[in-house]
Amino acid sequence: MITRLDIISGLIASLERGDLTQEQLLLYLEDNAHILKSNIEQALLQHKKETIDAVLEENLDRYAAAQESILSNYEAFSLAADRATDQVVSTYGHDIPDIVLVPCIGLFANGGWKEQGDDKSYICVALERLSPTAHLDILLTHEVAHGIAETKWDTVLDGFYGEGHATYVSRVLCPGHPEEAYFFMDKAWLSSCLDWIEGNRDRIRQDASQPLQVLNPYHKFYFTTGFNPDYPNIGYVIGYLYLKHLHQEYTLEELRTFGKTDHPNQAEFASFISTWTQR
Question: pLDDT tens digits for 9-32?
Fold first, then answer.
């Protein structure tokens, strides 16, 4: 079942009045730490600070500067959540894990994340990180796909599969956008990634079996932006192409759990990456 939770109505009211304070933001972050955990951890790392207070102090003026964008995204969230819910339920039915869609005001770090707790997946979107023209339905569907998928996160292949599955599902359920829009990147970036993948298939096949840990060399290269400026988030593209290939044989429902397998997944990926070409 997909439900919603609004934890920012008070912050939104303060933003509209122009009196949002650091103390109010800190209380909100403390009260909702179980939902905002990933954003807090990412912000401390990204902003190179020891405490949330220090992050807030450095970024407080940015909330006022982003006021118009945040308020616009807050308004757009409800309609996008309706669309994402309808798309997912019409495809997978109601018998899916419990998902909670949560509009958030974050710490100018990650824009969307999944937080697990109370037998639910909280799908969070940081409204300050999105432009008013962002495809919120794509982002929500991507994150919901993470919430309903049964995957692992032990190897680089697991990373390819998890991010590829979410990206591919958003493409299928939110059709009509340019392909690069599903990665929130531009056409030149996608073209350069495709060229790199075609020229480095042996390396990708070998890397797929390597262990995946946050900010280890494989994570930095395939699944981050700041640590791989030439091909940021290229692992998403590899995974997307792989899932597109798998969907020729497997249904979306089957792909929801295929990533938790070992041998079939490994064998399929080795075959795919050895023969894939963009031509």
Answer: 999 999 999 999 999 999 999 999
